[in-house]
Amino acid sequence: MTTQLPLALRWPRRQRFEHFHAGENAVAVEAVQAAAVDPAAPWVFVAGPVGSGRTHLLIAACQAAIDAGRTAQYLPLAGLRGSRAAAIRGMAGSDVLAIDDVDSIAGEADAEHALFDTFNRYRADGCTLLFASVGAPVSLEIALPDLRSRLGSLTQALLKPLADVERRQVLRDHAAGRGIELDDTVLDWLFAHHARDLGALLDLLDTLDRASLAAQRRVTVPFLRNLLKND
Question: Is 82 left (phi over 0), alpha (psi -120 to 50) or beta?
Answer without folding.
Answer: left
